[in-house]
Structures
1.
Amino acid sequence: MTWSAAPAPLSDAEFAFRRGSLLTVLGAVLVVCLITLSVQAHWHFSFNDQLMLMLLGVKNAALFTWLWRSPGAFRLVGLIELAIQAATVLIRLYILLHTAPGYHGLGGYAVWMIFAYIVAFIVLPARQALIFSGGVFAALLGIIAAYALDPATDPVMRVGLGNPLLQTTLMHATFIALLGWQQHLHGQFVRALFTARREATLAHLDDLTGLPNRRQLGRWLAGGLETGEPLSVILLDLDHFKRVNDTYGHDVGDDVLRHVAGLLRRSVRSGDQVGRWGGEEFLMLVRGDLGAAQTVAQRLRAQLDGAPHRQAGSVTVSCGIAPARSGEAAHELLRRADEALYAAKRAGRDAVEIAA
């Protein structure tokens, strides 16, 4: 495993989750520092304890503000916090084991040591977080082993701290394993969710053209009619498409459909929808009255005329336009558009007809 200077970019959702988590950690520790300092007069904290709490509060306030105002600095802020956390864990443990015992020993401090692992799994990808956490844990074990094996260590202190040190190491190992397993399950969940969403999306797309299919268009049409706002439909059919298949083959015919779909996708206005209705028929849902739909249809015909297919040549369409009537059902609106389409076919094709 090698460390990557530029990890794979996070999705918007994952980035928001990780940034929010890091802000929560920084903010929570800042609040704890402020509360602790506010009661220190009653508990008679040492000067060193007060100084460390003040420095910790200032550091967290600075990093919190930086990350809040500059979301793009997430990784840099996270790595700075991670480096400080890891160094603090190891240095503080060494100092505690090599100074005269006080009232607190390892008790209060041991709980805060695990924050280094939490930050690692927030900031780093799962595998890198495991490697980093394992390195911190190995260094922690090295400090404890050196303390236990040092002939200069007070035998009474070695025995007295034996149980707290054992519990601390077991807690750290358990916490790393828990975070690693949680990340593994989270990754499985995200992949399953992505697959489910992709399958749900594909269920509403046409396989050949990539445009929304008849099912999705039907849902959009029903929703548009419910709003009561002006809505028109354009049902269009490729002219002489059977001739294309007979002359050039079905592969070219499929490519013509994709060619037209691409033009439709690029020409659709914001707020309008377009999809494949079936065969060589496409349906456009135009937010607007008859005039708006006529403009869209004429623009589409002009674009098709200016972009012939590389093998089949010029592609024309016949269009039937039907503006929705107040209270009209979807099937009635589509029936009128279909009648207008066939009127355009009877008029010689490459034409636009308006529904009665």
2.
Amino acid sequence: MKLALILLIALLPTPGQTSAEDLGNLSANPFLYESTANPFGAGSPFAPNGINNPFSPYGSPFSNTSATNPFATDAPRLYDQQGHYRGKLSANPFDPDSTANPFSRYGSPFSGESINNPFGPGNPYRFDSPNNPYGKGLRIEGR
């Protein structure tokens, strides 16, 4: 009985054991399979967890985890190729980490950490920029 209880406790998930779901790359490259600009890859409107699918949890305008919901608080997160956090891919202009918030460090066109800055991470000539039509872009992770 004690052994069964110990096994049950060991198998229960703890709050720190969450794993992120890979949703592809935020990229303007239509030839990269992982790109959200590729309609046959991660950008497919039929991908079960795609951000371009209006019926998926990450693309629905009503889901709290959606990139398109203007009231979402748990939107997908963006990471560059080195693993640095680049904010939330969100349409919420009030979320302090949202790329749609023009006053946040991840959404301001003047911030050095914003993908909206054409002279910083949003530069179309940088390899890891989501605006580069030939680059890899930023990794998108959902909960």
3.
Amino acid sequence: MRRLAFIIPVVLFLMVAAALGLGLRRDPSILPSMLIDRPIPTFDLPGLTPEDTVGLASSDFTGKPVLLNVFASWCVACVIEHPMLLRLQAQGVTIHGLDWKDEPAAGAEWLAQRGNPYTLIGSDPRGRTGIDFGVTGAPETFVIDGHGRVRYRHVGPITPEVWTEILQPMMDRLETET
């Protein structure tokens, strides 16, 4: 009985240590998405200003691959990412924006100051559409194929390395599938 009282805590400790060890090997920048290879959630969002007659809707994601970039005026990392988005737009990459958990006027002002890389923009001040996508923070970028399915989720700023090593090859491949 004394031996069992000693062995049980040791076995439990080893099991917990093994579980923690496996968790430490996981890359924290890779957050899986339940939406991979599934259609995007249905949504219809207004633009950033009352003058915007067009916002962003799930029906806008058909025909060709696009990036859906989640941003906000309060997002520090979005400032770092923004010049890269402007370069991608200049190269002809279609990027739609989701202004997440932000006042629409603040998002509009932020883009007016820095430039607008987005073809279409939707305002999601309460974050409901972001929740449907599984957004955990800004910036996040989703690769959406020409059939409106999520093919990849990138958490954090798009850097030149992320574009050339991950996103561009994926967008090129999806372009040929359409």
